[in-house]
Structure formats: structure tokens, C-alpha cells
Design the sequence.
DNA sequence: GACCGCCTACCAGTCGGTCGGCAATTGCCG
DNA sequence: CGGCAATTGCCGACCGACTGGTAGGCGGTC
């Protein structure tokens, strides 16, 4: 009987597990969130949890991988199709902000922020993730470098500028609470402006001001990632 | 014999303990760094460690308190004596950047970043620390608010701007490695410029450009905080 | 001889993870 | 359609390793 209405909203146990573990890892930290905690949050026992999951490490790795896959799909890949560095930079900032800010959706994006830097994971997994982060960082830095070559950047080191922007963006995950005074859209708008002003020459901003007030016309139009497709791989 | 030269550099066991525990908490996370780890790093056994320290919690609380005391001394208190909001903002950004960036000194400043947000600490301690953070944040936000009232801020919400700046500044602790391509002074200079440009109106920056290339002429004149004086209390 | 610095030995509890088994569902065969 | 085996989803009990923390003692300095 319950099966009938679950057919319409078929959240599987695995979905639940990933959702709750993401939440708990973010709330309590990876080491402090025990497998029993996760099992309890899902409503099964620890042994039951291990029926679906190989190890705590696998959980963490899949979670991070999934978060990065979402980032690839929503930010990194679309950005690579934008040839103009200024358009690209604007898109990357805005899309990344949405990516971080929409953590109030299904599963936990802030994993990106919280799980890579403290310490867990085996060295090999850490290395793979560090590598992935490095690619993202370098892409941003090179975009800034291209802008500098065009004379549209202030006299700052592209690497320093890239880290500054990333800090601003990622920190959003730490302070943004759902239901605050401002909507996520308002926050993203304002922060995009702040971010662009921080590195671009004022005259460039002046002449390109047009683009300060619309959502990015990027992939993933309506749908939310169902938290499942990309888990494997 | 060793005692003779130690008299000149009398790092006590307690100093060692706090230095190593700060390092380990930052490296591995609070929960993942065990008391045995810390004892081992200091060169004593766990029981020996407990001769000096009451609990792991006390260690964390003292560490955070100490880090915030340093922040008070080097950033917050001096900033309160600066009446002009623009001078104040510039000082706060620069001093805070130095505060975060000089983690390569004796003990671990990045505790500020790493220990307050994951999860450890008893609820009461957490509350006290959250309160302290709130005071700092509000002070920055109000400084930005004062600038906005004077028409020197871009059209952004002071709260959003404050969080953006804090993210940029605190993130420095995550990416800065000693011995990198740029010196800490170069990084702070550039980031100060980036930070100020992100929120101030371009014409304000133009007219105040003077101050973009000198260390702050603030309290704590020459000397570097010896990271020891404030340990007690 | 009192105190300080520190160790050996040892708690009780929790961790990640395993094992065997038991219901219920599913798939297959006649 | 019935029957029945295989599979799925899950649990209770348990393990060895390790956790934060303690008790008591031992050697050296004042």
C-alpha cells in the first residue's frame, strides 16, 4: 500500500543514506559522525547500513565525488564552452555561488568545502581529490590571466586573485542559512558584483555593467540532480 | 648543560603541548587528532600529557581562546581606536590578513578557522565562541555600514559584504604555504587591494590610493607577537 | 622529605566493521 | 495458477582496535 505512493517518490535507502551522511558529516565533521549516527538517522542499524555501504571511507569518497560531479556539470564544463574570459569569469563566479548556496536542496554540496580540507580519506583518495581541485583552481587562475593579458584586470597576481575569489565563494557555505533575510538569488547577485569588482578594472565593470542582474543561461534548466546517477564512476 | 641554553629560550612543556596540539588539530581535525598523537608529538606519554592538561576539551578551548586573544590584541582592539571608517576598514583587513597569514609563526592561528566550525566542544563553550565571533562580525558589518552612510560603499548589503570579506581573509589560512612564490607581505598587500576594491566605490579608491603600499602604522609597531605572552589567562 | 615531571598499567566506552540468520519479496518453473 | 528457491533488506550479537581519562608509583631536584 505504501509502495503505491512511493512509486511516485521513490527515494531509495541509498538515497537516504547519502543524504543523511552528508548532513551529519557537515554538521559534526567526518571523524565525529559515526556510522551508528548515520544508521540511526536513516532508521536502521549499523549492520543494516553496512548492507548498503562498503565502508565509511567509500561513503566519504562517493559523496565528494558526487559533489564534484555536480560542480563539473553545473560550473566547470559549461564554463569551458565560454570563450570570452570576462563572460567566463562572470559565469564561473555566479554558477559556483549557486552551486555552493543551494546546499539546502537534496544532498550536501558543502561537502565540497568541509570534507576535503580537514582530514580523512586514504592518501590515494586525497591525492585524486587534490588533483581535481587543482584543475579547477588553475582554470580560474588562467581565466584571470587571460583577462590580465587583455588589460582588464587590476594589477594583482592572478593566483592571489583566484584564491581570494574562491575563499569568498566557498565561505558562503559556512554562513548562509536557509530562510535568512535575503534570498539566495539576492545574495548571489550581490556577491557576484562584489567578486567582479574585486579583480576587474573599474572601467571594465562600467562598460559591461549590463550583465549584473540575470541568472546564468546555463545547462540544468530546472531539474535537481537526483543524487543517484552520478554516484558511480 | 642543556638547561643553560634553554634559559635563553625557555619553551616549556606546556608551550610545546599547545604548539603541537594546534598543529595536529589543524592537520587532522579535532576529532581525528588523539591525545596519544599529541603526547607522541611532544615526546611524552599520554598520561604525562594529562599531567599538564585537564582534558582534550580544555585544550581546544584554551587554544581557541588564545587565538581570539591574539586577534583582539592585534586586530580588534586597535581597530576600535580608529574613528574614520575607511581607515578602520583598511586596517582591519590588513591586520586580519597578517593575523591569519602568520600562522607559520610559533603556534597555530588557523585554529580560528578550523576549530570553530566543524564540531567539537561542549555546547556552552560553543556558545561563548559563537558570541565572540558575532561581535567581530558585527563590528566589521557596522564599519561597512558607516561607509555606506557616507556614500563610499558600492550598492551592496553591508552584511553580505562583511561575510564576503571574511571568507576571503580566512581562506588565506587554507591555501597559504610558507616558502611560496610570494612573501606574506606581498600577499597581504595584494589581498588588501582586492578586498577594498570589492566593496568601495572606485572613486573612493582612486582618491585614497595613497595607502596601498605600506604596512599599517598601527599599534604593535615593530615587534612580531611573540605568541607567548598571551598564552595564560 | 616534599614536590614536580613523567611513566607503566589499566580502566570503561566507542569506534569501524563482521557474521549468521531471519522475514519478506521476487523470479522462475511447472 | 501454485509452489519454491533465490535474492533483498535488515537485525542482534559480537570483535579487535583504539579512544579519553585515571591510579599509583618512581626518580630526581629543591
Sequence:
Amino acid at each position: 500500500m505504501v509502495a503505491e505512493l512511493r512509486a511516485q517518490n521513490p527515494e531509495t535507502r541509498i538515497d537516504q543514506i547519502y543524504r543523511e551522511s552528508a548532513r551529519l558529516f557537515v554538521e559534526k565533521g567526518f571523524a565525529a559522525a559515526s556510522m551508528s549516527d548515520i544508521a540511526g538517522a536513516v532508521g536502521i542499524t549499523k549492520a543494516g547500513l553496512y548492507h548498503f555501504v562498503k565502508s565509511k571511507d567509500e561513503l566519504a569518497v562517493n559523496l565528494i565525488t558526487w559533489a564534484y560531479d555536480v560542480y563539473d556539470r553545473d560550473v566547470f564544463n559549461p564554463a569551458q564552452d565560454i570563450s570570452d574570459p570576462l563572460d567566463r569569469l562572470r559565469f564561473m563566479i555566479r554558477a559556483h555561488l549557486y552551486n555552493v548556496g543551494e546546499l539546502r536542496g537534496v544532498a550536501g554540496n558543502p561537502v565540497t568545502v568541509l570534507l576535503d580540507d580537514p582530514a580523512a580519506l586514504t592518501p590515494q583518495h586525497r591525492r585524486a581529490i587534490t588533483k581535481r581541485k587543482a584543475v579547477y583552481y588553475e582554470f580560474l587562475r588562467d581565466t584571470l590571466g587571460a583577462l590580465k593579458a587583455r588589460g582588464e584586470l587590476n594589477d594583482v597576481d592572478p593566483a592571489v586573485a583566484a584564491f581570494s575569489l574562491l575563499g569568498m565563494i566557498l565561505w558562503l557555505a559556512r554562513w548562509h542559512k536557509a530562510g535568512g533575510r535575503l534570498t539566495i538569488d539576492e545574495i548571489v547577485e550581490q556577491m557576484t558584483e562584489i567578486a567582479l569588482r574585486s579583480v576587474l578594472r573599474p572601467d571594465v565593470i562600467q562598460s559591461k555593467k549590463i550583465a549584473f542582474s540575470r541568472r546564468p543561461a546555463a545547462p540544468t534548466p530546472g531539474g535537481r540532480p537526483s543524487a543517484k546517477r552520478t554516484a558511480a564512476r
User: Anything to note?
Assistant: Chain B touches chain A at residues 27-32, 114, 117-120, 154, 156-157, 159-161, 163-172, 174-175, 181-182, 186-187, 190-191, 193-195, 197-199, 202, 205 (CB under 8 Å). Confidence is low (pLDDT under 50) at residues 1-8, 104-108, 212-233 of chain B. Residues 30 and 119 of chain B are 8 Å apart (CA to CA). The two ends of chain B are 32 Å apart (CA to CA).
